[in-house]
Amino acid sequence: MNKRTAPLAVVALSLAALVTLPVAPVQAQDTAASTPKQVKKAQRKEARAKKNAELKELEKNGYNPAGEQTNYPQNLQSAQSKINAEKAGKPAPASAP
Asked: In what ranges is there compositional bias, type Polar residues (predicted)?
């Protein structure tokens, strides 16, 4: 019986030690481990998120990239003018067919 309690006590103490170890903040770990490759990856991820947000805003204002493309430049320009008007606080111009 003593053989079983000793390993259990060691396991319990080891687990308690692991749980109470101080953990460095995630932000400190990220800045310390920033390599040029990681920086470029973060920049690409940020640029992709920005482009996706712009596309969602265009789609919200009537542009459909997967839709009919016969009026392609006009559809995109119309959606962009609506966005610009919203940002300027002016009423949106009438859209062309």
From this structure: 67-83
